[in-house]
Amino acid sequence: MPEIHDLHPRPQLVRDDWMDLSGPWSFAFDDGDVGLSKRWFERSDVYDRTITVPFPPESRASGVHEPAYHPVVWYRRSFQVTAAEGTGDVLLHFGAVDYRARVWVNGQLVAQHEGGHTPFSANITQALVGSGEQVVVVRAEDEPRDLAQPRGKQDWQREPHAIWYHRTTGIWQTVWLERVPSVFLEALRWTPDVDRLELRLEARLGRRPPPDTRLKVRLTLRGQLLSEQVVAVADRLVNTTMSLHFVSTNPERDDILWSPRRPNLIQAELTVLVGDEPVDSVRSYAGLRSASARGGRFLLNGLSYYLRLVLAQNYWPETHLAAPSTDALRQEVQLVKDLGFNGVRIHQKIEDPRFLYWCDHIGLLVWEELPSAYVFTPEACERLTREWLEVLRRDHSHPCIVTWVPLNESWGVPNLEGDPAQRAFARGLYQLTRALDPTRPVIANDGWQFVAGDLIGVHDYAPHGETLRDRYGTPEALDRTLRTVQPYFRNILTDATRGEEAVVLSEFGGLSFAPEAGDRWFGYGTVRSSEELLARYEELVQAVLGSETLIGFCYTQLTDTEQETNGLLTAQRIPKLDPARLRAINTRASRSMPGDILADIHHGAQDHHSAGHE
């Protein structure tokens, strides 16, 4: 049975005073969409089921397990909290509700939000009644057949088909309460500057502060004080730059910079002072690292870095998009690391912040990708852009994230070559992302038509290593492939021309393991034995590593997911192959960047070092 653990649901802005509302809630389907007119937010008699939050009603773990179309669902539960005394407030937080949510507390509407993968909050102080029982009600609307809605791999057909999966409706991340003072820190944004050895902080307060408000920030690394600063606070937004006083013991500064080999994390303590009185205290962390792409290379901390990624759906049989537990998120990260990959491309999903927490702490690079819509309309453009802005805001401070990917395989922009408006939208997402975060590479549309980006991602499911060598082995072969070969019936370069963009084979492989001829499968090539799977995997990876020009790869995929049986692990996270043999293949030297493996050998003893734990 899935378990809920107590890792804070917002790990980069932590207060001790919070309450997890996961667990049993009353629940009801509203297939006739009558709940609003009949004021279900004021009633208790219409809730005829019990659901375990945060597991979606389509999943077995929820206790409901109804995968059919149910566009509108309602949740209700009571909780005990005393109305804030004096100057304090109570906030109600939702990690993610798919897709459109309304929230009432004690019959009073306190929040509305659209977007199925991003968080929202409400100050519920004025809605609380005394010190007795409080009631929260959530209405979630998730139209299964709305193709203008960012939905990722959630199927719009009644039953999963091809590469799409069962849906995740309603609440699928943690719901939690937090008590805050009248002057409190609402959001933090950390931006590292490796060259200057500085951290820039943007802090936002929940309301305008009174006179004589100050913010005290203390940064440490493994107990060593790096910087301490007290900043005057005149408005809700506070900006400051902190120089890190650190004497490195090596020329590459591996003892302070964040990387998969050495995931050093700087611990932060922040205190809001009014006069000399501390009124709010939070804990946070940041990583000092840079990520860029130039001159045909991907650079981590200014040095060429070879990307060894695996595609991950992060979907579980019992819980769908929701994780079975926070420990399952940790195990997922550790599995990827143990298989010899240095990064993960989360596919068509915005992950729980606690997954990113473990990537930060264990040391795993992340490509973050927006779940797609499947039509190109003004409404789809608006929805995608709005949700992408919320993603960029939520996840900016995670050092593990090194690439933003707003579009995948032209999903939602199906006529990218023929329609100038679709090309303009893709370019616009690229430019918008670069404007809001110039510190990371961006790929406007990964895999197929390249219209804008700092990297070029190519998806090629050629079944044999020889074909991959012919297409990508030399600069001349790569140039020919990008200009004339259509690996998946799509031109890679449209009206764009390649400059010095680095090229990553960002999907390949996809070998389906089906021991019996009648086994259910979906993949890009089928093998019948584990020995054949290992041999074919080694053949494909070795061909990619042998390329003079590719600067990384992403193998499809980490786990079997519903009808897709092309994972290196089963859906239950059981390896199909010896992890040690996979690790040996994945960590071999690449021809385009042989020095990368020398660095791995040099730092091999510290592969699992997690300097962020103090």
Protein described:
Mean pLDDT is 93; it is low at 1-5 and 601-614. It is built from nine helices and 33 strands. The two termini are 31 Å apart. α1 packs across α2. The chain has three domains: 18-180, Jelly Rolls; 185-286, Immunoglobulin-like; 298-601, Glycosidases (TIM Barrel, Alpha-Beta Barrel), CATH 3.20.20. A seven-stranded parallel beta sheet has the order 26-25-24-23-33-30-29, with helices on one face. A six-stranded antiparallel beta sheet has the order 3-2-4-10-7-8, with no helix packed on it. β7 (100-105) and β8 form a beta hairpin. It is of the alpha/beta class. Keywords: Hydrolase. InterPro entries: Beta-gal/glucu_dom_sf (IPR036156), Galactose-bd-like_sf (IPR008979), GH (IPR017853), GH2_Domain-Containing (IPR051913), Glyco_hydro_2_cat (IPR006103), Glyco_hydro_2_N (IPR006104), Ig-like_GH2 (IPR006102). One of its GO terms (molecular function) is hydrolase activity.
Question: Structural class, please?
Answer: alpha/beta
Can you tell me the residue ranges where pLDDT is under 50 for at least 5 consecutive residues?
Answer: 1-5, 601-614
Give the domain tally. 3
Order of the strands making up the biggest sheet? 26-25-24-23-33-30-29
**Total beta strands:** 33
Task: Report the sheet-strand fraction.
Answer: 25-35%
Helical segment count: 9
Taking the sheet with the most strands, its summary is: 7 strands, parallel
Q: What is the arithmetic mean of pLDDT?
A: 93
| Radius of gyration over C-alpha positions, nearest whole angstrom | 24 Å
What's the CATH architecture name of the largest domain?
Alpha-Beta Barrel
